[in-house]
Amino acid sequence: MSDVADAELFGNDDWSVSADGLEHRRTGYFISRGAMAARRAEGLWDWPLQMAEKNWCRPSLFREAFLGALERFGIARDAGLTRSFALGYGIRAVDAPAQDTFVTLADVLKPRSVPETVRVAAPRPARALAAAGA
Q1: Edge-to-edge, what's the strand order for the sheet holding 21-24?
Q2: pLDDT tens digits, 21-74
Q3: Alpha-carbon distance 3 to 18, whole Å?
Q4: Burial class of residue 29 (count of CB atoms within 10 Å of its CB; 0-12, 13-18, 19+)
């Protein structure tokens, strides 16, 4: 690699953007410049969805670096990108710790445990319901 390719165009605590692409500082995980705009068949962006599966990837820092890379590489954003981050990382949590400002959709949609004291009433026959309303 040349010094120009190695020069950091953008960076944060976890990620470094160079002319060649985006690299995770600790793991060396690399997304090449040519692959940044990869899409899935339904139009969603591939990398936000892939990186959401990595337990070492801090969402806010990846998002910042990914958007910085797109800007520096002249890659246009679209609504599919927003949807991709939302589907991959979930929604912003107001009360989350500062270092992890996203909640995954799996955590949001996780069924809550029902206390054992809660009992579901047995269904009543339709005739009984009709008579009760009369």
Answers
A1: 8-11, 15-18, 21-24, 30-32
A2: 999 999 999 999 999 999 999 999 999 999 999 989 999 999 999 999 999 999
A3: 10
A4: middle
- For the packed helices 59-73 and 79-89, what is the interaxial angle rounded to 10 degrees? 160
Taking phi over 0 as left and psi of -120 to 50 as alpha, with beta for the rest, 11 belongs to beta
Contacts of residue 33, Cβ cutoff 8 Å, sequence gap at least 6: 19, 20, 21, 69, 73
- Backbone conformation region of residue 83, classed left if phi is above 0, alpha if psi is from -120 to 50, else beta: alpha
Beta strands 102-103; 30-32: pairing state: unpaired
| Separation between Cα atoms, residue 43 and residue 84, nearest integer Å | 9
pTM of the model: 0.64
Token digits of residue 122 = 């047995």
Per DSSP, the three-state class of 131 is helix
Cα–Cα distance, 11 to 79 (Å, whole number)? 25
